[in-house]
Amino acid sequence: MASVASTYARAFADVVFSAHLDANRAVAGLREIARLLAESADLRRVWENPAVPADQKRRLLDAIVQREGIDKPVRNLVAVLIDHRRVQFLPRIIEQLEKELDARMGFAEAQISSARELSEAEKRALEVEIEKTTGKKVRARYVLDPSLLGGAMVRVGSTIYDGSVKGQLEKIREAMSS
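Request: output the structure for the sequence above.
Response:
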């Protein structure tokens, strides 16, 4: 079903760029609707039930959109998902949309694992190095991993940059065993 999610995500990314929408606000609106949907079995039952008339589903959506202050293009996407009985794909669509928007805006997502909490200066220095290496702006996510012993491991897409003590020890062990 990844193709369903990516199809809707690409189409909505087109809307975001052609209408000059605030991408962060659009994603936040979608996340809010996904959160409400995840928390309410009643809402899911109504939106996924083919016996409930479409106009009734849209009125419920409109009430949520108005209450939460969600933009009309976001509302329209969710209405299309409801009409085509694809609302269950909303979380995956959001994931794909974020990746699509990042790619179009020249961002790379980096997961940075370190043995200890990094200072703001260390985080910024790492991000600058990653930006130089990838040629893209970086959105960094930091994770603590005490098993690294020291240093850091950076994952950008499928590429891993291992500057950890654990990684260096493994390289030495491999060299010694061969």
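The mean pLDDT is 92.
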